[in-house]
Design brief:
Length: about 120
């Protein structure tokens, strides 16, 4: 149902550097690119993520309670995504680990603009 999720940025070049490494770890690259918008994912694949300068010309801001969840393929990939995020201008919002009853394993971080993301796996993955 979801084709892609968009996060706002005030510096598209900086956002591109951050999301390029996150997307590469997920096995995808840029699928659309315009002067003020870049989307990462695979055409015809699962949902993608895009960074955009707001169309209305106002500064990009972070939505309280808004988060993009990236489905990883293993606990090791959750760790790699977390490490890559922090190494490329992201900030920590919760180190990798089990959450709840242990069936959910996730790491939380913010991109350089402050948008919240997580990398996760569910039981059986």
């Amino acid at each position: 149902m979801i084709g892609y999720v968009t996060v706002g940025t005030n510096d598209l070049e900086r956002a591109a550097k951050f999301y390029d490494v996150i997307a590469a770890e997920m096995g995808v690259g840029r699928m659309m690119e315009f002067e003020t918008f870049i989307a990462w994912g695979k055409m015809g694949g699962g949902a993608g993520v895009a960074a955009t300068v707001p169309f209305d010309g106002n500064a990009a801001t972070v939505g309280n309670g808004v988060m993009v969840a990236l489905e990883a393929d293993s606990k090791e990939q959750v760790q790699r995504l977390y490490d890559l995020a922090l190494a490329h201008g992201g900030t920590d919002e919760g180190a990798p680990g089990a959450r709840g009853d242990g069936g959910f394993y996730a790491a939380y971080f913010r991109d350089p603009d402050g948008n919240k993301l997580n990398a996760f796996i569910m039981s059986g993955q």
